[in-house]
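User: Second chain of the day. Same drill as before.
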Amino acid sequence: MKEYRKLSRTDHIRVANYYYNHGLTQEQIAITMDLSRQRINRVLSKCLKDGIVKINVEGMDETNINLENSIEKKYNLKTVRVSNTSLNDDIYTAIGRLAAEYLATIIKNGDIIGFSRGRSISALVDCMPSIQFDDLTITQLMGGRNNQHSNVNVDDIVHRFAKQTNAKSALLFAPVIVNSPAVKKAIMKEPFFLETYNIIKSCTIAVVGIGDASYEPDISSISDEQIVYKKQKFPVGEICTHYYCENGEPVKTSLDEKIIAVGRDDFLKIPTRIGVAGSILKLPAIIGAIKGGYINTLITDQKTAEALA
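Assistant: Same format as last time:
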């Protein structure tokens, strides 16, 4: 009947002292105090609940962990990482470095990683530590652009990341936008395209930038025609050339039948979808990406994170 004897507050303090200050195991404390190990476990839980024990994690004030956790909970995201931008960093370098650090912790042999384009993604590659994998594949989630700076183009991003990680690369060898739907259909029937697209559909991780389309779609700069939005819905953001409005709903455009990129449904089947983006100007685009399920992991800067929270 010793299990049911009443314990005083002093007894609780004694258990906590044994456990936290002297490093005794729960089993050792149970023997010392003539109680069961299960009772000791319950006492330790009550010590935390009653404030007898207060746990302080050193360095929390120097991190964004609480901010990250609040955003994860609010938006039901798998992971959020928030960077601190130093005076010597621009926003792309800061979030690119943090994204590289995070990606280095989750990659494993057998992964297939798909990339989109952009300055943040390029900065990620620049900051990626040299890690040698035996079985890693890198691919592009969209076609390339001839008139874009090479270091932010998806082809170059894939090439540089593969070199940094000893990975195999799978390229589309196609532009992001072609002249007509007929050209797109022809390309999609080619064996080289089908082979790479099958790899894209097997991606385990997607790493994408988030484009701000609230003022003028980026893709319009590579076409002579203006994008016509169907059903009068206007976009706030774009991921892999897929446009969406503020609540995350897809926005159809007149260029959809000319775009070479991962299909929206195939993209949403990728288990880990990491959005790397920052700045208050992109806030609607980031929120739309979250609401639309385009990303389930977010790497961003502190000011944007505070606005999200």
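The two ends are 51 Å apart (CA to CA).

User: Great, on to the next one.
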